[in-house]
Amino acid sequence: MGLPHDQLEQIQHAMRGICPFSTASNLAVVLTVLLNKSKQSHLGCLQAILAVVEVWLSICWMVGNSIATNINLCSVFGTLHQYSIIASSCWSFMIALYCYLIVIYSPNLANSLWRYYLMYGFGTPVLFTIAMYVSQAVLNRGIVTGDADYQCWIAAQYPELRVLLDFPLLWFQILAILFFYIRILVVIRSRTRDLISSQNRTKTEEASIAVKSEVNDMSRSSVPGSQSFSGPAANNISAHARNGSATYQPNSGDCGPEVMATQQLPRFSSPTAVPFRVTVTNSAPAAKMTKSRNKLIAKTFVVSVGCFISWLPPTVVRILLLIPGTQVPFWLSYLTGVGFAMSGLFNSAGFLVGILWDHFLKSKSGHKVNGGVDSIS
Question: Computed over its alpha carbons, how large is the radius of gyration of the chain?
Answer without folding.
Answer: 32
